[in-house]
Design brief:
Layout lengths: L17 E7 L2 E6 L4 E8 L2 E7 L23 E5 L3 E6 L2 E6 L5 E5 L5 E13 L6 E8 L5 E4 L13 E4 L16 E2 L2 E6 L2 E7 L5 E5 L6 E6 L5 E6 L3 H12 L13 E3 L7 H14 L5 E4 L20 H10 L3 E6 L3 E2 L5 H8 L14 E3 L2 E4 L6 H9 L2 H7 L3 E4 L19 E2 L6 E2 H24 L6 E3 L2 E2 L7 E3 L7 H16 L5 E2 L1 E2 L8 H11 L5 E3 L15 H16 L1 H14 L4 E3 H4 L13 E3 L3 E3 L9 E6 L3 E4 L5 E3 L2 E6 L7 E4 L3 E4 L13 E7 L3 E9 L13 E10 L2 E9 L8 E7 L7 E4 L2 E3 L11 E5 L4 E5 L1
Parallel strand pairs: 13-29, 19-20, 19-33, 20-21, 21-25, 25-28, 28-30, 30-31, 32-33, 43-47
Antiparallel strand pairs: 1-2, 2-3, 3-4, 4-18, 5-6, 6-7, 7-8, 8-9, 9-10, 10-17, 11-14, 12-16, 14-15, 15-18, 16-17, 22-24, 23-24, 26-27, 34-35, 35-36, 36-41, 37-40, 38-39, 38-41, 42-43, 44-45, 45-46, 46-51, 47-50, 48-49, 48-51
Helix pairs in contact: 5-7, 9-10
The structure holds ligand MIG.
Length: about 800
């Protein structure tokens, strides 16, 4: 041991008293006697950014997570001081900063209640090994506080009492509580006393969150390097916290093509071509709707990205075209590892251009993946991303591939400790050169981003489609995602449900699981129950490792095939509803799935619910999560709900038993909702939509619903060629009024609506459309509660 140096272990260090305060518009900086600077940026009335340096010098202010499109601006900002504190006041928040030690406490500006307060606050440990600091923050948990979010953690919704790590990791056959897994989304929301706030710790190093696990009333987060740099986002509604976090880290850059919301079929692997065709033909033969078919790594020549196996796929362009003629979009996998092979042009080019990652002392980062020894592009270099994006030209433009699936981008490396790059690997980090310690968590994100750029370029004028396994906050701007290598067990069905809800709460709604499980094989019952859940996930794909038997909808016998078909058909009928929910997400950052706590935080019953969730705005779904069930108990949130199957009305705010044999599942529709439906199609665009079905659920009272439509693909919608219908329903004892407000220039193919009236408590005696009475026979009243009328109406009166 070397003694007598200045490198003594210093333990935790703390800021001392403030000696200087400066204000530069909305950036306030506070300097302490021991050289710590806290910079508070008021981004919005409800969003404060806190950033600390222990040396007086901040790093270059660069983030992959924060989008340049994030909203900024505030209504009010005032900084005052008293003996103890500097006091920052906006129209939503009051933030005290202690003159003694930089500790902060934040209050609701309206009712002055305490929202969030530092315990030790910011502190740090100097890192002898790496330089810089281990940066830490601790806050006092408030009475009854709960925590949610954090991306893909496979745990119950409420995170209280647990500790987590953020370090994206290839996690084959992970299970409940495995941590960390594929994604790093260092954002959580907290809820106490009916008020919610969020914290986004924008630090890409290995980071940790502790929610009252180490100490009962303390919440803390820390990272192995970088800056203590976090955003405080106030609600008080949790849905606003999530919306604002999503605004900050970005919404999808474009709407997905409607077909991407259809059903996808995948396996490792479908090959050769004849096998692919066998699968796709079977879908059409059995009339099970399907829009996409996947090629896993075996389509390549020796696992070389951007090549095709001549043996298995002699003429990919022809095959892709034939599949397309049958309504199937072909999606291929692309991994980051590039095989070391001087005769392989992608490798040769990457090497010549110096695009591969290197170790600290100069050698290339060599790692074993599917192709054998590989080098890996440094996707954190913008020039490399540009190069990578151009590699998709042939696949997309020439061959006609419609989507690309990025796997192994944690990055995963075989047969090494940690299953990834060593820490010393160097990265460009968009001009902020660093080691893998800092770049690891965003490597996969930057790969997906580069892939997205390629797809966007070469799919044009159609929309791009990318799927990624690894992700950091903000990745939702470019791509969809799946939850990785799960297992075919009942517990994993529950985990998939939790992960999808949690991802939606973490700003990343375009998510789904490998339906049926990746590892091992489900029985028919598990597969059917998983499909029932999967049709409510924004990304809906069956995938399996392929070595445990077949996992297609028909693999488990006729009874199961029929159940699977029935539910996939529901998915296709609900496409306009899901597309509208997606539009709300892409436009406003509203999550597509809402955990009950997000839906109704004031009802404390919701704080510990896991299985039930709201799909879009109006549909409540709850999977059956065990074998041999004829139904289940579930919590119905407050309000009144129609049973989707029977139209029976249930009063919420209580737990109820719901019948759900294998061919059914608990689905409810909020009263007053208007649910748009398309006819069942075998793939998106198979049929021209001649009539829009509107399922109208009567309510005594008012409710609003929306229907968003556009050309289903392409960019015309950005120029205003979309159709947005806003319906206001208002029900009285003997009358139902529906007002329609239409905006956008897109003209839908259909001319009429078919209204299915559910739960109408009276017999219709008169109908007026825009104040003109229409003879009932002209409305083609089929049965009592169906009527057909022009899509152009402004106001409909149904009178009893
Ligand atoms: O080491 O490409 O999660 O979906 O089928 C396994 C083969 C690599 C892992 C992915 C999985 C995919 C598989 N991949």
């Amino acid at each position: 041991m070397i003694l007598n140096t200045e490198l003594e272990y210093k333990g935790n260090l703390f800021p001392s008293k403030i000696i200087k305060y400066e204000k530069n518009l909305n950036v306030l900086s506070f300097t302490t006697a021991n050289g710590v600077v806290l910079e508070v940026t008021v981004r919005r009335d409800s969003i404060l950014r806190f950033r600390f340096t222990t040396t007086g010098i901040f790093e270059n202010d660069f983030s992959y997570a924060i989008t340049k499109y994030a909203s900024r601006g505030y209504n009010h900002l005032e900084v005052t001081e008293d003996d103890k504190n500097y006091i920052i006041t906006t129209s939503k928040l009051i933030c005290n900063i202690s003159k003694l030690d930089l500790r902060t406490s934040i209050f609701d500006a309206k009712d002055k209640t305490l929202i969030c307060e530092d315990e030790l606050g910011f502190h740090w440990e100097e890192s002898y090994e790496h330089g810089g600091d281990v940066v830490k923050m601790s806050k006092t948990a408030q009475a009854g506080e709960s925590y949610f979010g954090l991306g893909d953690k496979p745990v119950d919704n409420n995170l209280k009492g647990k500790r987590f790590e953020n370090w994206v990791t290839d996690s084959y056959a992970y299970g409940r509580d495995t941590d960390p897994i594929y994604k790093a989304i260092p954002f959580y929301t907290a809820l106490h006393n009916k008020k919610s706030y969020g914290i986004f710790f924008d630090n890409t190093f290995r980071s940790f969150f502790d929610f009252c696990s180490e100490r009962r009333n303390i919440t803390s987060f820390w990272a192995h390097g970088g800056e203590m740099n976090y955003y405080f986002i106030y609600g008080p509604d949790m849905s606003d916290v999530v919306v604002n976090y999503t605004d900050l880290t970005g919404k999808p850059h474009e709407m997905p093509a409607l077909w991407t919301l259809g059903y996808h079929q995948c396996k490792w692997s479908y090959y050769p071509e004849s096998n692919v065709k066998e699968i796709t033909s079977k879908f059409r033969e059995l009339e099970i709707p399907c829009d996409a078919i996947y090629l896993d790594i075996d389509y390549m020549e020796g696992f070389r990205c951007f090549t095709w196996s001549k043996e298995y796929f002699p003429d990919p362009k022809r095959m892709v075209k034939e599949l397309a003629d049958d309504g199937f979009k072909t999606i291929v996998i692309i991994d980051p590892g590039i095989k070391i092979d001087m005769d392989y042009s992608v490798f040769k080019e990457g090497l010549d251009k110096d695009y591969f990652c290197k170790r600290a002392d100069g050698p290339y980062m060599k790692g074993k993946v599917w192709p054998g020894e590989c080098y890996f592009p440094d996707f954190t270099n913008p020039e490399v991303r540009e190069w990578w994006s151009n590699l998709f030209k042939e696949l997309v433009e020439d061959i006609g591939v419609k989507g690309v699936w990025n796997d192994m981008n944690e990055p995963a490396v075989m047969d090494v400790p940690g299953k990834t790059f060593p820490n010393d690997v160097r990265h460009d980090y968009d001009g902020n050169q660093c080691s893998h310690r800092k770049a690891h968590n965003i490597y996969g994100m930057q790969m997906a981003r580069a892939t997205y750029q390629g797809l966007k370029k070469f799919s044009y004028p159609k929309r791009p489609f990318v799927i990624t396994r690894a992700a950091y906050s903000g990745t939702q701007r470019y791509t969809s995602s799946w939850t990785g290598d799960n297992i075919a067990t009942w517990d994993h069905l529950t985990i998939a449900n939790l992960q999808a809800q949690r991802m939606c709460m973490s700003g990343f709604s375009f998510i789904g699981s490998d339906i049926g499980g990746f590892a091992e094989q489900p029985n028919g019952e598990l597969y059917a129950r998983w499909i029932q859940l999967g049709i409510f996930h924004p990304f809906c794909r069956t995938h399996s490792s392929g070595d445990h038997g077949d996992q297609e909808p028909w693999a488990f016998g006729k009874t199961i095939t029929d159940v699977v078909r029935k539910f996939i058909e529901i998915r296709y009928q609900l496409l306009p509803y899901l597309y509208t929910a997606f539009w709300r997400y892409a436009e406003d950052g509203v999550p597509i799935l809402k955990s009950l706590v997000l839906y109704d935080q004031e009802d404390t019953q919701t704080h510990y619910r896991n299985d039930e969730f709201i799909f879009g705005e109006k549909i409540l779904a709850c999977p059956v999560t065990g074998p041999n069930q004829k139904g289940r108990r579930m919590y119905i949130p407050r309000g009144q709900w129609y049973n989707y199957w029977t139209d029976e009305v249930v009063i919420g705010g209580q737990e109820v038993w719901v019948d759900a044999d294998l061919d059914s599942m608990p689905i409810f529709v909020k009263e007053g909702a208007i649910i748009p439906k398309y006819p069942i199609q075998q793939y998106v665009g198979e049929k021209t939509i001649n009539e829009l079905l509107l399922d109208v659920y009567y309510a005594e009272g008012k409710e609003e619903s929306m229907v968003y439509e556009d050309a289903t693909d392409g960019y015309d919608y950005i120029k205003g060629r979309y159709s947005l219908r806003n319906f206001k329903l208002s029900g009285k004892k003997k009358e139902l009024i529906i007002q329609q407000h239409k905006s956008g220039k897109f003209v839908t193919t259909y001319k009429t609506f078919k209204l299915n009236l559910h739960g109408l408590p009276f017999k219709i005696s008169k109908v007026e459309v825009d104040n003109v009475e229409i003879p009932l026979k002209d409305l083609k009243l089929k049965g009592d509660d169906t009527l057909v009328l022009t899509k152009e109406f402004n106001e409909l009166h149904i009178i009893g």
